[in-house]
Every structure is written in structure tokens, then in C-alpha cells.
């Protein structure tokens, strides 16, 4: 194809060039006869190309015409549909206008009828008023009075029945709420008594605990403030004390001494001192665990430490941790049912008896608890709940009433409190406090359920002669100030020690 294009261009150039004049340069020689077949072939191919291009152009034109015809047909169809829809819309518009006109005419007729009725009503009312001699308002009042008289008995009956039904439903609902709360608060509980029993590995261990001339057992009872009963059974020792913390310290210390085997006065004092520190840690952990069980966190450390004393404290024989946990669960369930402030009830139940384990202040446990909690940044509603949980003050909120109810339910349920120990514990504590008031008394312990008061004096203040006089004074004070069944033995102990340390030589 490149050669054909070149030949056509040369032919065109020759046709467009001027014929040479005689003065021009001599004519170019004739073309070579060998090129003629190529030229003829190129012309033939050019004709074929032109014919083919015309055929393709004609085909394209036909295709375009067919497409145009189809499009025109579709446009015509769409136009027909539009025209039909416009005609339908016109018909609907006409029908709507007819209906609107009909409705308007009917409204006009109704309005005329209403006007006529109103006129008739007015005329009839005027005639009725003229006949009865009463105005419209007077007739209305007269009619209402008559109806009220006839219905007043029925209304009273309905009101009475409604009140009765409401009371029955309220009582049933209250029982349901309390039952649900008790289910939430139910816990396993085993009451503990004022005596702990320790099993001995052998009967010879009793002699080692007593020591030579009883010095070991005297040191132990003096350091712990408990009474050891060693003559009941051959293979066990009973630890008796009304104070559960002292009893627990003695129990743990005695178990350590038995395991250690070195039972002597200095070792006893060392073990008891360490045990007291350990029990303080155990009580703090118990307080923290109690708070976490009722989902109370971030309380001041002092409050948690005091709550831990519940582990070894009993109220009417009911363990304080068990009672507090049970009461708090009941209170929370009641608060949810009654849609009140759950957190106030939660804290009020947890802290309501905290005054029972604070022994360095005077007053009832409610007063002591309120005074102690007032030192911390607690909500006033919580402190009010503590102050009102024995009805010492009028209830200031529904939350306080719930704390009171939960406390009463937990304490009054069967099996919760097996015996009233409050007066018993109070009497034992009074025995100790009476003896401790005298000068020279270091420690005083009520033992054997209050049948003995053991007094330890300071030997630097009380000599042997004064010891007998002091014992008599304590006896007289107890006789005058306290009431007690049976006999009370007062045992005063004065002990001096000498101690030297031998240092190793280097």
C-alpha cells in the first residue's frame, strides 16, 4: 500500500505541474515500462477499497435508519400512553369536581338543618323555662342534686369496696416483696458459742501447757484474758471467754504453741503478741470481704477495720458478719422492689450496727455508730438510716424504714438468734470495768461465765500487803454496783520478774 500511495502522489504532482516551455530544461526521459503493471494493480486495489468503503457506509446508513425507525416507534407509543393518562386524569378531575360540588351542597343543607334545629331548641327552652319558672342553670343544679342524693349510697359502697380491695392487694404485694427479699437474703448460718475446743496430740501436752507449778497456764491466761479448762476431757482443752476476739487470739496462739513445742512464759508472751497482730490483719480482711460481698468499695480504711471486728462479735448469739450480710441482701432486694435509692440502703444496712464493736466510747451502739461515722464524708441519708434503725428517731426517709425492716427480719427469723446474750455480755464487761477502775490494776478478765474475775496488778504500785486490801475493795464494789447470780471469785495476781541478757563474746 505504501508504493501505491507514492505513485498516486507522483501522478498528482505531474498533473499539477506546468507544461515546460521550449526555453525550459530538456524533458525528463519516459517512465520505465516495468512500472506499468504495478500501477495498474494499485488502481485496481484502490477501486476495490473505494467500493468496499461505499458498501460499509451504505450498511451503516441502513442500520442508523432502522434504529431511528425503532426509536420513532417507541416515542409514538410513549406519546400515546401519555395522551391516554392525560385523558384519564381529566376524567378523574371532572369526577372530583362533581363530588366536591355535591359535598358542598350537602354541607349547606346540613348547616341549614342545624340552624333550624338550634332555633327550635331555643324556642323549646324558652317555653320550658316559662312553664317551669326555672332558668337553665337552676334546672341543671336541681337535676344534679337529685342524682347526687340517689347515687350517694352507691358511691359510698363503691369507695368502701375499692379501699378494701386496695388494702388486700397492698397486703398481698407487701408479703410478696418481703418473701422475695428473704429469698435474696437467705444464707447458710451456723451459730457459734462462747467456748472453743482444741484437740491435743497427746495427754502429755496438757502437762507442758500447765508448766511447772502452773506458770505456763498462768502466763497464758494473763496474756490472753481467757480461761483454760483442762480437766473436762483427756485429749482436749476448752478455751472460755465472753469476748470472741480474745478467745480467737487464745485459740490461734495455743495451736501455734502446741505445733512449736516450746511452751514457756517468754515464748507464750511472744506468740500471743504476734497472734494479736495477725488477728488484726485477719479482721481487716474479713471487713474488706464483707464490703465486697455487698458490692461496697472504697470505704475509708478505718471503717473497714472496724467492720472486720464483726467476724468475732455476736449479737444475741448471731454472728455480726452473717447478720450484716443477710440484712444487707434483704434491704437491697426491698429497695429494688420499692424503686428507692439502693446505694443509701446498701450502706445503711452495712453500717447500722458498727457501734457494737467500738468499745472505747460511752453510749448506746446507735449513738456510738453515728458519732463514729460522722467523722467521715458519708451521705447524710446513710447516717440518718443508722441513727433511725431502732426507731430512736422518727424515720426521715423510706430508705431508713427499709434498713429498720431488713434488720428486724434478719434478727427475728427462726434460727437466727438462739439465745439472748446481750445482758450476759454486758454483765461480764461490767465486772471487768469495775475492777479496772482501781489504781494499780493493769488488766482484769471475767472468766468462767462471770464466776471468776482475775485481776493482774502492777507490782511497782501494789505491794503484797496492798494486794489483799485491793481485792477486798474490788469485791465490795462489785457487790454494791452489780447484780449477779451465784458466787464470784476475785483472784488478784501480783508477779515480779528479773531478766538479764548474756551477750556473746567475740
Question: Which residues form runs of ≥5 with pLDDT under 50?
Answer: 182-193
Main CATH class of one domain: Mainly Alpha
What's the β-strand tally? 8
Order of helices and strands: HHHEHHEEHHHEEHHHHHHEEHE
Give the overall silhouette.
Answer: flat
- Broad structural category: mainly alpha
Q: Biggest β-sheet, characterized?
A: 3 strands, antiparallel
Name the average pLDDT: 79
Number of helices: 15
Order of strands, main sheet, comes to 1-3-2
Give me a quick take on this structure:
This protein is mainly α and 506 residues long. Among the domains are: 195-422, Hypothetical protein af1432 (Orthogonal Bundle); 426-493, 2-Layer Sandwich (GMP Synthetase, Chain A, domain 3), CATH 3.30.300.20. Helices cover 65% and strands 7% of the residues.
Amino acid at each position: 500500500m505504501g508504493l501505491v500511495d507514492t505513485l498516486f502522489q507522483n501522478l498528482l504532482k505531474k498533473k499539477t505541474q506546468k507544461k515546460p516551455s521550449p526555453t525550459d530544461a530538456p524533458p525528463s526521459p519516459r517512465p520505465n515500462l516495468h512500472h506499468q503493471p504495478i500501477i495498474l494493480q494499485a488502481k485496481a486495489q484502490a477501486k476495490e477499497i473505494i467500493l468496499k468503503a461505499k458498501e460499509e457506509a451504505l450498511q451503516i446508513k441502513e442500520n442508523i435508519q432502522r434504529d431511528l425507525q425503532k426509536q420513532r416507534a417507541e416515542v409514538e407509543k410513549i406519546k400515546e400512553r401519555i395522551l391516554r393518562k392525560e385523558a384519564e386524569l381529566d376524567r378523574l378531575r371532572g369526577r372530583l369536581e362533581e363530588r366536591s360540588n355535591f359535598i358542598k351542597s350537602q354541607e349547606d343543607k346540613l348547616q341549614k338543618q342545624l340552624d333550624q334545629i338550634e332555633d327550635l331548641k331555643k324556642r323549646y327552652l324558652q317555653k320550658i323555662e316559662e312553664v317551669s319558672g326555672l332558668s337553665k342553670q337552676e334546672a341543671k343544679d336541681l337535676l344534679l342534686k337529685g342524682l347526687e342524693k340517689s347515687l350517694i349510697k352507691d358511691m359510698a359502697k363503691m369507695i368502701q369496696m375499692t379501699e378494701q380491695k386496695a388494702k388486700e392487694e397492698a397486703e398481698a404485694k407487701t408479703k410478696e416483696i418481703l418473701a422475695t427479699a428473704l429469698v435474696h437474703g437467705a444464707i447458710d448460718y451456723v451459730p457459734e458459742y462462747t467456748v472453743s475446743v482444741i484437740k491435743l496430740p497427746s495427754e502429755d501436752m496438757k502437762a507442758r501447757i500447765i508448766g511447772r507449778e502452773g506458770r505456763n497456764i498462768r502466763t497464758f491466761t494473763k496474756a490472753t484474758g481467757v480461761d483454760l479448762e483442762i480437766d473436762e476431757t483427756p485429749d482436749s482443752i476448752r478455751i472460755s471467754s465472753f469476748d470472741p476476739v480474745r478467745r480467737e487470739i487464745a485459740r490461734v496462739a495455743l495451736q501455734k504453741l502446741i505445733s512449736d513445742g516450746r511452751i514457756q512464759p517468754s515464748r507464750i508472751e511472744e506468740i500471743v503478741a504476734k497472734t494479736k497482730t495477725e488477728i488484726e490483719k485477719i479482721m481487716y480482711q474479713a471487713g474488706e470481704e464483707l464490703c465486697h460481698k455487698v458490692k461496697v468499695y472504697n470505704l475509708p480504711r478505718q471503717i473497714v477495720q472496724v467492720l472486720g471486728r464483726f467476724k468475732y462479735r455476736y449479737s444475741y448469739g448471731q454472728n455480726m458478719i452473717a447478720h450484716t450480710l443477710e440484712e444487707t441482701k434483704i434491704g437491697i432486694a426491698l429497695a429494688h422492689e420499692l424503686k428507692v435509692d439502693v446505694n443509701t440502703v446498701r450502706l445503711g444496712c452495712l453500717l447500722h450496727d458498727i457501734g457494737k464493736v467500738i468499745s472505747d466510747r460511752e453510749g448506746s451502739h446507735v449513738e456510738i455508730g453515728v458519732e463514729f461515722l460522722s467523722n467521715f464524708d458519708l451521705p447524710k441519708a446513710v447516717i440518718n438510716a443508722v441513727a433511725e434503725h431502732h426507731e430512736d428517731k422518727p424515720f426521715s426517709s423510706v430508705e431508713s424504714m427499709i434498713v429498720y425492716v431488713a434488720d428486724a427480719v434478719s434478727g427475728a427469723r427462726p434460727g437466727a438468734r438462739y439465745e439472748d446474750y446481750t445482758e450476759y455480755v454486758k454483765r461480764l464487761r461490767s465486772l471487768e470495768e469495775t475492777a479496772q477502775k482501781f489504781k494499780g490494776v493493769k488488766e482484769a478478765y471475767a472468766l468462767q461465765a462471770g464466776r471468776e474475775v482475775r485481776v493482774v496488778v502492777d507490782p511497782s504500785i501494789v505491794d503484797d500487803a496492798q494486794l489483799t486490801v485491793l481485792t477486798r475493795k474490788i469485791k465490795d464494789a462489785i457487790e454494791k454496783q452489780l447484780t449477779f447470780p451465784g458466787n464470784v471469785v476475785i483472784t488478784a495476781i501480783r508477779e515480779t520478774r528479773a531478766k538479764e541478757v548474756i551477750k556473746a563474746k567475740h
